[in-house]
Write a sequence for this structure.
């Protein structure tokens, strides 16, 4: 995982690391990790076919993977953390094909 917590980085620079075109959005979300025993709240701020960027509502413990849940629609998607910067995380969607290889 890439940690971008340095003074020269901004959340805009984090977007430069993405692998696909992203659409800016603003949707409430929750991430569930540690076998469903821990969670975080945030805002989904951009999304693409391969992943998303989330602004966390508060500081949270470190985690490597989580289930992204959209509050309004109830949609869920397994994710892997790709990078962190302050209260932002970049996540890669885990596809069934990738999960089978792991």
């Amino acid at each position: 995982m890439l940690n971008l917590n340095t003074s020269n980085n901004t959340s805009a620079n984090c977007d430069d690391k993405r692998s696909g075109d992203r659409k800016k959005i603003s949707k409430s979300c929750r991430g569930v990790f540690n076998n469903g025993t821990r969670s975080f709240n945030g805002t989904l701020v951009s999304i693409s076919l391969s992943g998303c960027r989330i602004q966390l509502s508060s500081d949270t413990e470190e985690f490597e993977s989580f289930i992204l849940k959209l509050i309004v629609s109830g949609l869920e998607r397994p994710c892997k953390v790709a990078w962190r910067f302050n209260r932002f995380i970049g996540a890669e969607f885990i596809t069934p094909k990738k999960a089978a290889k792991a």
In short: The CA atoms of residues 68 and 77 lie 5 Å apart. Residues 4-13 have pLDDT under 50 and may be disordered. The two ends are 16 Å apart (CA to CA). Residues 2-101 form a domain with the Thrombin, subunit H fold (CATH 2.40.10.220).
